[in-house]
Amino acid sequence: MSPTPSVDSPSTSDSAEPPETWEDRAPEPRTAKNPFLAIVHDKVMRAPLFWSAVGRLPLYLISVSMVVFTASRGLSYFSAGLLLSGYSLGGAALAPFVARVVDRYGQPPVLLITGAVYPVALIGFVLADPKAVALQLVCVVVAGAAMPPISGCIRSLWSAPGNTERVGLSLEAVLGEVFVIGGPLLFSLALIWGGAGSALVVGAVLTSVGAIGFAMTRTSRDRKVAPVTGKRDPLGALRSPALVRLLVLLLVAGCATGAYNVAVPAFVENHGSAGDIGLVFGVWGVGGILGGLWYGSRTFRQPSETVFAWGLLALGGASALVLAAWDNWSMGVALVVLGLLQAPVTALSYELISRTARAGYVTEAYTWAITVSVGGSAVGSQLGGLGLGAYGTSAPFLGAVVGMLVVAALAFGARRLFAAPAEPDGSAEPTGAAEPAEAVTSPA
């Protein structure tokens, strides 16, 4: 709760009133019935939310454009896959360490630097000689490593004490689905005015504008970090056993998602035409949007860690529906159900990341979650492809069911580890309060 404003100097003029800070911000009653509308009207978070959406909308535009652009220059799909892998691995390998710099020195410096380097690297890739594959690979690896850490930054702000964390993180799950659908649509629009190379440049510039705009918001600038007092723990966020356990769950769950990325297109093509693939994936995304909106507008009596475990078990059941699909219509219905459950579980995982992260490593913790999810998806795609080639689509779908049931069992077993810390004095403690020497003064 914010401290009570001083009334010792009633004669102080309005012009001398200090600017509003995180500490001075007191929660105000909201008249909006929908909590998502309350977020839109939140003076503190609406600017970062807007710029984060601008900067992350091209996420999937970049991936699609890179493959199409490489193929359009006469290079093989092997080269396209190599370049896309370099881009993904560059981000996955270095993103947690970039996020650690954010936690140590603040969001604006890192966002401004990456917001400048990222578009330069991608534009260099577009302008490079098609035969200079090594140079193109260097450009995409640098671009991946310099991708602005907007997702980790906005989620760390939502996780700040006194903020509408649950609704904000639910909105993050919804936006994730929006980006999946919106990225390819943005790519199609960019092709109207130019080729795949132009789409890449548009995506790079939008990402840069979003990162710089986010860095310039008052909310991002006011996020305080602990002063640097010496060397930081080399393990960083991974020093938390609870977070490591949670990352293992997300890794296995990511494998299931990767299996779907390979098996669903193959299933749709076998039962119709390749032109239906985008529609089926779009339906999946719509289910996720509806599920995230539903979860964010509800409250649950059970603890988050218990709801998370039950949600994973429900996802296992929805995965069985996918396994039982017999045509594209039944597959669409099964994926809608899967999406309805997947978004709430994703939002719950964000809440548990915030809870299990050490003080001073919150952005890094969120970034590790992205890294392991992407890594799990890559592994799942490879395993799913092997199973698909040997036994058909039923093999990766069955593997996804088994994987989700394993994750659910592990989540039930780790509920105590994920439980919220006790609050003997009746006030909420910041995450990682047991480490005061490294604590971050989160915006409150």
Structure description:
- The protein has 444 residues and is mainly alpha-helical.
- Helix content is 70%, strand content 0%.
- It is built from 17 helices and no strands.
- It has helices at 35-40, 46-56, 59-72, 77-105, 107-127, 133-145, 150-158, 165-193, 196-215, 218-222, 241-270, 277-296, 304-324, 328-356, 362-391, 394-413, 415-418.
- The chain is globular, with a radius of gyration of 22 Å.
- It starts with 34 loop residues before the first helix and ends in a 26-residue tail after the last helix.
- Mean pLDDT is 78; it is low at 1-32 and 424-444.
Task: Provide the descriptors you would attach to this structure in a database record.
444 residues, 17 helices
Mean pLDDT over the residues: 78
Shape: globular
* H-E order: HHHHHHHHHHHHHHHHH
Low-confidence stretches: 1-32, 424-444
The description of the largest β-sheet is: none
Instruction: State the end-to-end CA separation.
Output: 8 Å
Number of helical elements = 17
| Helix-strand category | mainly alpha
Helix content: over 70%
Strand composition percent: under 5%
Give the tally of β-strands.
0
Work out the radius of gyration. 22 Å
What topology does this entry show?
Layout: H1 35-40, H2 46-56, H3 59-72, H4 77-105, H5 107-127, H6 133-145, H7 150-158, H8 165-193, H9 196-215, H10 218-222, H11 241-270, H12 277-296, H13 304-324, H14 328-356, H15 362-391, H16 394-413, H17 415-418
Helix pairs in contact: 2-9, 3-4, 3-8, 3-9, 4-5, 4-6, 4-15, 5-6, 5-9, 7-15, 8-9, 8-12, 8-14, 11-14, 11-15, 11-16, 12-14, 13-14, 13-16, 15-16
